[in-house]
């Protein structure tokens, strides 16, 4: 979420609470709301790299990472699987997983997935 959008959310919350609460209470509520949004914003990011040939005929690798959070490993896995599917779909084929590895298991670590795959014709 962009900083501008975050400011609009907090401003709207402040406008909603203004008639009912004191200024210190509004600041506390705004801080709590901001702290509640931070983990959600951290979970939104996953990126996948470019498809690279492995050197073995017809095999490719992909690397993806996701910002820490409770299910970052799932986001990095989804990113590599989606990229592999998109790559093979451009060829009119479907992906077949050869191997996958993951790194990063702690909540605030960057989680990484590496996928080796092949593209095969649709049946």
TrEMBL record:
Recorded superkingdom: Bacteria
Name listed for the protein in its UniProt record: Lipoprotein
């Amino acid at each position: 979420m962009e900083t501008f959008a975050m400011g609009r959310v907090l401003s709207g919350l402040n406008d909603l609470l203004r008639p009912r609460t004191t200024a210190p209470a509004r600041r506390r509520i705004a801080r709590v709301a901001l702290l509640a949004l931070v983990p959600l914003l951290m979970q939104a990011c996953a990126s996948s790299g470019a498809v690279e040939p492995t050197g073995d005929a017809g095999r490719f690798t992909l690397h993806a990472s996701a910002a820490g959070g409770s299910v970052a490993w799932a986001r990095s896995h989804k990113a590599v699987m989606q990229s592999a599917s998109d790559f093979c779909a451009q060829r009119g084929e479907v992906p077949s997983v050869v191997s996958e590895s993951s790194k990063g298991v702690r909540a605030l670590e960057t989680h990484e997935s590496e996928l080796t795959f092949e593209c095969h014709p649709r049946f």
